[in-house]
Amino acid sequence: MLKPAFAHFSALCLSLLMGSAWAAPAAELSSPDGRLRLQIELDGEGHASYSVQRQGQLVISPSRLGFLLSDAPKLDRNFALTASSKRSFDERWEQPWGEQRFIRNHYNELQATLTETSGLKRSLELVLRAYDDGVALRYRFPDQPALKTISIGEELTEFNIASPGTAWWNTAFEWNREEYLYKRTPIKEVGLAQTPMTLRTNKGLHLSIHEAALVDYAGMNLARVEDRRFKAMLTPGSGGLPKVVRAAPFATPWRMITITETAAQLAESRLMLNLNEPNQLGDVSWFKPMKYVGIWWEMHQNLSTWGSGDKHGATTANALKHIDFAAKHGFGGVLIEGWNQGWDGDWVANGDKFSFTQPYPDFDLERITAYAKSKGVQLIGHHETSAHAANYESQLDEALDLYARLGVGAVKTGYVNDAAQARVPGTDGVVRFGWHEGQDMVRHHLKVVRAAAQRHIAVNPHEPVKDTGLRRTYPNWISREGARGQEYNAWGNPGNPPEHEANLVFTRLLSSPMDFTPGIFGMKTQQPAGVATTWAKQLALYVVIYSPIQMAADLLANYEANPGPFQFIKDVPTDWSETRVLNGEVGDYVTIARKGRNSEDWFLGAITDEQARTLTIKLDFLTPGQRYRAHIYRDGAKANYTTAREDIVIEQREVRPGTSLQLRLAPGGGQAIRFEHLGAR
Hints:
By secondary structure, this protein is an alpha+beta fold. Helix content is 18%, strand content 36%. Strand 26 and strand 27 form a beta hairpin.
């Protein structure tokens, strides 16, 4: 057996033979429960790296840290650890609205300063946090004479996955932004991926790689370098500028890795929200979570048009009809698209033609908003920009002032255009072509959210910048699209397959919420295969896919003709006090139970992919000693997403807390249940 001193000498010799592979731990951090350990290491050449272990087993192998700068030597070597400190933090905070009212934020933190030992002797600070369900790190650029302005050509942060396994990922840097079907491949076959990216190792561990608190910085993608080693790839800057330009001091977004044993635990994690700053807006009770209907699906069905003419959808008469329907059935809002001038012609190419204050002549905006107010309904505004952010910003104050005067409390914004074709002003005022998640567009979205908040208006962007948890800091940022939504079932080629929503729960929805627009009963559409779900699954999506605003997206006539299943849409809340993910596997199935914030009722949604399944759930989320009536909306005996989508059974039965239910899900099917609280036994 080697003596310790000789063993250390042998390791040092081996490191010299292998270059700079050998590294000694410089600092380490453990999660509050002790299961996760995060280490910072420096090799013989002063390269910094980090690694993550869970219960003594490597999860993230040593992964490099640093930056390539556009106008200065890179920051990635000759580092020494010159200062470090630790702290612990534990709080319980309340969301003004959300999928869970109270959230625990419990972590241990390490702050470390790395300083170059030669050359410019610049410093780079690292902040690392370890939670029970994951780890995170961010960089801080301090104010220092040798680095006043930071122009980042590339971030060198790596994620070196220690074990083989499976990845679910969405391609990055393609023309259609985030709107692609998720791929399922071995980890070592991932190409260039967006975040969040979800992984399951062969040992059964579940991981999600994402970012939190994306502010004035370029969005992060993941490029697989070799085997299972990924490197951050920042979204390019507008017009060929550096990817990020910032004046010191500043901090980057968090790079986060959620680590759980099960897929269900992954979906229950609140790590991303905890990494964001608390609410900066104060009292936001002026935003009320709601369900809404709208003049929208009819355009996707080619029954009406956004542009003016004989088939124009946004007419005064059509708007009043939708307001009456919303008031009758207890919906809070009506979305109207195509009301404003600019939709005629090639509106995607001519985004500078949009006016955000001038309605078409057949749309009486003043009358409609006044009528909605008299009925206890509010208009949900719509600002499609065709990604011409510069044109939108030039009218932003006037447009939001108009909505504030008329009592329009929420606005759906849109940025339809090919990736890299956004037209956005830089800090110098010059308008350049840019990417939807480049630094300039990241700044633009937050500018809109802040301007809207000043007027008590909530924002729901489509074709958006990714969600990184900023809804905690700016609670008027209520939802967004950012994935393939329901409209692909109207005209997509292909449409959304049965596994799509079960993929979303464990991928895109980890950054949550999503304005998916569920609730379609008319299953035959322009898409040849129609809507690849059953009716029961459409109802279950109101629970499974979280958003504080949920659209009843179908034509009003389809709801009027089917009051039975429509009742669940009327009953289901959009604001929750508790959420439990009862089971699930990525892309296969999931069951979620949520408790309404304003009642003692629970609601359950279960969905499956193309495979029929029977899931057994225990009703241990219901309060012991209380009585409940289950209003069940389930797939019928013949239900199938290809041949019998409309086969649904609606029934009631009393259930006891703690007992078990069997959920039989048809191929492409689901089940929705309202557990109505009846009082004590």
